Amino acid sequence: MNKEGGNEESMARTVVNPATRTVLVLSISALGACTATSKSTQDQFPAKGAYDQAVGESGLGIHFVPVKGGSGVDSFYMSDHEVDWDVFDAFVFDLEELPVKGSPEAETRPTRPYMLVDRGFGHAGYPAISMSRRGAEAFCLWLSQESGRSYRLPTTAEWSHACKLGKVPTASMTDYAWYDLNADWTTHPVGTRAPDALGLHDMHGNAAEWAVDDNGNGVVMGGSFLSSIEELGCSSSQPETSDWNESDPQIPRSVWWLADGPFIGFRVVSNANS
Fold it and tell me: pTM (2 decimals)?
């Protein structure tokens, strides 16, 4: 049973990508939203180059940059910064009203948060934060359905690989990252620090980012505005823990929002041949 009283094993949604006939399966029990199988593209540079993905009918877009494969990682595309509130709001408020807790829609869409999820840090242009892994993966599924292209969270191997290719020098970290030394205990607008060698912003600091490890578990990568410089490495990660929602007063606790995770956000990736 899930925390909202549903049978997780029975909650699976299958979506067919009309452009590629790729089958996407959202399995809540495995937290495998927006995953897709692909042929190996190791060491092949994505042919398409950077591109912009429209976000529904919002007039907004997400910019994706190509990441060349290697070291056991296939080539892929990665959003150039964390998903911001402008884009996440387009997903959350796509319906005229947010789903009511306990309704069928509440199994696949975030319910109305009881708290100020941006924590007063800032909204327009700021990284979306405080969402659970399930909330981040639901966004991926929605974007996939809206666009006809498969989107998902990165694996830890993909995230680390892209970070290493970015070649951010530790000695110049303040030019590239918002962290405990310069963030003043708050997130900052995305893309306001220098891009790395791939053209990616905020891989270090600002909001820690959801990824999926080899065992299918959720972790957050890269550190946040609260992190020390030692916690901003390309392999730095924190495993998902119930502590991130410990103070949620709701019974059952929300599966969409994290009462104690104001430092957690995400970015999305797409397979090179999606």
Answer: 0.80
